[in-house]
Design brief:
globular; four-stranded mixed sheet; alpha+beta; three-stranded antiparallel sheet; 23% strand; 39% helix
């Protein structure tokens, strides 16, 4: 359940335990709880491509569709960068699809995924 407070400035999401959660708190929690996370808008074709590349490698990221208030929080966290989707690996914002592909082509993606526990150690490229 979502509700807007103070003229739409703050969005609260009710947790399963019934405690309201602010957008910033929810985003921080999701980032800390998921080794590979994609924040996206509904029907985003770029997130589809991200999920496909990661799944080919054996990683199944958590995908969160965000609302307008959460988009504003994510923009603030990512220095105003407005392009979606945002990919987080190990709690750090990696960037968008172009960055993900660049990491993959430079053989830097798999070691990063191994480092955060999203892939087994034996897949690491030396």
């Amino acid at each position: 359940m979502q509700r807007k407070l103070h003229s739409g400035i703050i969005t609260c999401t009710t947790l399963a335990i019934g405690v309201p959660e602010l957008a910033e708190t929810r985003i921080r929690r999701l980032i800390s709880e998921n080794p590979v996370l994609i924040f996206t808008r509904p029907s985003c074709c770029m997130s589809h491509a991200m999920k496909r590349l990661l799944s080919v490698l054996g990683v199944h990221p958590t995908v969160i569709e965000v609302d307008d208030d959460e988009i504003a929080v994510l923009r603030d966290r990512n220095s105003g960068e407005s392009s979606f989707p945002y990919l987080y690996i190990g709690g750090a914002c990696v960037g968008g699809l172009e960055t993900l592909v660049a990491l993959h082509l430079s053989n830097s993606l798999v070691p990063k995924l191994v480092e955060v526990g999203a892939l087994p150690t034996e897949l690491s490229i030396s």
